[in-house]
Specification:
With about 190 residues, the chain is α/β, with parallel strands linked by helices. The chain contains seven helices and six strands.
Length: about 190
């Protein structure tokens, strides 16, 4: 098991937009105050360049160098950014997207296929090594969980402040699209279930 490839994916702590149940894909807003289990031994963390991921990483990994990469961002929701379900529920394009996000795209936004390509590029650009801690968003976590388990994107869960640890037999196994050999989830923050 020396050459296993492990991604520890952490969805950022909640923001005001999350609390209001808004789509805040590329909207850059801070996290709400939160308490988290910090790990002073992690030296490097990768993740989204957006403020909510940087701030979450700073609390959880106070001694780590943060390697920001816009490829780890959330799906871009286009004209739906900052909107809520209540504001969009009567829009047929939105209903189509809710029913089948793999076939529909937010207006002026990003498709799930585009998100998957971008996240795969982010994983492949990680430096040499076998184990990485990544602070990102719900979409990327769900995207990688779907790839790892072979289940649909809609069947995946990504709660705020949770760590999803996914292990592949090797980095090559990840790159070839093989399913993971281990998958686990654990809360890291006190208000993780928002």
């Amino acid at each position: 098991m020396d050459n296993v490839f492990i991604l520890h994916l952490i969805r950022h702590a909640p923001t005001a937009g999350n609390k209001e149940k808004r789509y805040i894909g590329w909207t850059d807003e801070p996290v709400l105050p939160f308490e988290g289990e910090n790990n002073p031994f992690v030296r490097n963390v990768w993740g989204s360049d957006l403020m909510r991921c940087r701030q979450t990483a700073k609390v959880l990994f106070p001694n780590a160098v943060y390697h920001a990469d816009p490829d780890w961002r959330e799906c871009h929701f286009g004209k739906w950014e900052r909107k809520t379900y209540e504001q969009l529920k009567d829009c047929q394009t939105y209903r189509d997207w809710i029913d089948d996000p793999e076939k529909s795209v937010p207006p002026e936004g990003e498709s799930l296929k585009q998100l998957a390509i971008r996240i795969d590029r982010a994983v492949r650009s990680l430096p040499e090594g076998n184990e990485f801690t990544i602070v990102t968003h719900g979409g990327p976590v769900r995207c990688l969980s779907a790839k790892a388990t072979g289940h649909a994107f809609n069947q995946q869960t990504a709660l705020h402040g949770h760590r999803y640890s996914i292990t592949w037999q090797s980095r090559k196994a990840y790159e070839e699209g093989q399913q993971c050999i281990s998958y686990s989830a654990a809360p890291l923050t006190a208000n993780a279930n928002l």
